[in-house]
TrEMBL record:
InterPro entries: SCP1.201-like
Highest taxon listed in the record's lineage: Bacteria
Species name: Saccharopolyspora phatthalungensis
Protein name per its UniProtKB record: Nucleic acid/nucleotide deaminase of polymorphic system toxin
Pfam families assigned: DddA-like (PF14428)
Amino acid sequence: MRKALLVVGAIIIFIWWLNGASDARFGCGDDQTSAHAASGSCPSTLGGAAEDAEWAADRIASLPVRDDGDPTTGLLYDSEGTETRITSGDSGSAYEAAKGYISLPSKQVAGHVEAKAAATMRDAGETFAVLVLNNRPCTYASGVGCLRASAMILPAGSTMVLWWPDGGPTTVRGSA
């Protein structure tokens, strides 16, 4: 009897956890670690997130407002709807991975959110993701800019859809 109660309790806890985890998909949970979309727009699939301008605007609004000189911040969403926060800068495992994947004389772009996101996708084996940014992708880093550099990092067949204030969706297709 005691064993049966433990099994039932474990199942209930698992179902509760599973339901709580699914509520936080695509940044739409009610918990403190994931802000709920203000408009109520919450996609049920990654493809839906890639096309949902209202959802993207809500996610952009949840990011810090970026002033000139501030780091860029992005939210990367994978196939499970899991949110990964990425900040620009020359540190961290995503930065090191991006540097390794870039075959350009200048590695400056490796510190940009878009390149870090592409490296994160590649390392995780993700072939489709959505990236929401608080800044427009640059056109200058490493002489090619963020979008072209991200395509160079992503394997062929991979796709990353980007949204930023007053921009998107823009699709980057892998060419590595």
